[in-house]
Amino acid sequence: MSSVPESLNLRREVSPLELFYDLVFVFAVSQLSHHLLEHLTWRGAVETAILLVAVFGTWSYTSYEATFLDIKRDVTRWMIVIAMGLGLFMNAEIPGAFEDRAWAFVVPLLAILLFASAVTALAARTDALREHFHRTLVWIVASAPLWIVGAVVGPEPRLWWWAAAALVDLTGTWLAHPLPGRTLRGGELVFDAEHMLERLRLFFIILLGETVLTAGRAMTDAPVDVASVLATAGVFIALVCLWAVYFGGGEDVIAIVVASSTDRVRAVRLGVNSAYLVLAALVALAVGSELAIAHPTGHGSVPLALLLFGGPALYLATTAWFYRATAQGAWAQRLVASGVLVVVGIAAVWLPPLASIALLDVILVVTAAVLARAHRALTRSLREDAES
């Protein structure tokens, strides 16, 4: 008989506390978007990427841990509440992290990572899970000195120290925190994959929501004229299409794949790994949208083209990789659309923003329609395979 408590095998809905926790990251995404907008240079982009890895890392770690521990346990609830409070302080310091508030950003960051992982390593109900989070703690401790040294030095060298720290954290997450002779065996873990996938879906909606808020703020500041209204409407259409690319049948595909998998942890890990790039893509689109709505009839530029077309292109390329690795279908269409966006984005350097938004909408509307059919066909195929 299994030593794992039967309660761990039950499907759990996402709790109100987890949704409450996610609100801190609505703030974080807004802060990241504003940081990139205020520092629209290559260095600013690298700074935003480093901060993004740190911020999303805290969300992914704590979300994993809450899923493994069961959000109904008191220890899990207290962990989430404390992480939420620390996260609020951390995210508030994003604008000054590369200036004079490095410590105010790093201290809550490391506190969240060390505290949440230590709690899980002690409170987990199985040996395999405790062993996994012991390894996770080793990786966090390995990157902590890099974050600390980066906070001590000046802004210029800080970029390199924190880039190294973010790379260590990202590598650990992507590889599931291996140590010599000790790796994650997902098939041995009792894991509510559907719960974690629902967390990812809700986080994706948060990301889209930030772009909606950005478009709304930009429209508030823009003059009420035809060009601004059309630009805002165009951004909204693009967001609806990006929503439909996944929720237009794509989530059904992933649900079937996960339900029939012998290693559900792997599918979720791939989803979390891809979410780093999806977050970067939608932050880029949010900033590009704000610039385009503010000056819809202005001149095109390389930064605007990179943001408006590069963001959706990265999003589609990332999800193409995810669907190729999990469902083995509905990925080629995404990759083709990503390539088209790159080509058109090059031409958009010389186009006014309003024309660029119109081209973006045409590509995304066609992509969403094509993928809706591809998802239906793939869903039928997967169900037939599961029943045979």
From TrEMBL:
<feature type="transmembrane region" description="Helical">
    <location>
        <begin position="159"/>
        <end position="179"/>
    </location>
</feature>
<feature type="transmembrane region" description="Helical">
    <location>
        <begin position="49"/>
        <end position="66"/>
    </location>
</feature>
<feature type="transmembrane region" description="Helical">
    <location>
        <begin position="200"/>
        <end position="220"/>
    </location>
</feature>
<feature type="transmembrane region" description="Helical">
    <location>
        <begin position="357"/>
        <end position="374"/>
    </location>
</feature>
<feature type="transmembrane region" description="Helical">
    <location>
        <begin position="102"/>
        <end position="124"/>
    </location>
</feature>
<keyword id="KW-0812">Transmembrane</keyword>
<feature type="transmembrane region" description="Helical">
    <location>
        <begin position="301"/>
        <end position="323"/>
    </location>
</feature>
<feature type="transmembrane region" description="Helical">
    <location>
        <begin position="270"/>
        <end position="289"/>
    </location>
</feature>
<keyword id="KW-0472">Membrane</keyword>
<keyword id="KW-1133">Transmembrane helix</keyword>
<dbReference type="Pfam" id="PF06772">
    <property type="entry name" value="LtrA"/>
</dbReference>
<feature type="transmembrane region" description="Helical">
    <location>
        <begin position="136"/>
        <end position="153"/>
    </location>
</feature>
<feature type="transmembrane region" description="Helical">
    <location>
        <begin position="335"/>
        <end position="351"/>
    </location>
</feature>
<dbReference type="InterPro" id="IPR010640">
    <property type="entry name" value="Low_temperature_requirement_A"/>
</dbReference>
<feature type="transmembrane region" description="Helical">
    <location>
        <begin position="78"/>
        <end position="96"/>
    </location>
</feature>
<protein>
    <submittedName>
        <fullName>Low temperature requirement protein A</fullName>
    </submittedName>
</protein>
<feature type="transmembrane region" description="Helical">
    <location>
        <begin position="226"/>
        <end position="249"/>
    </location>
</feature>
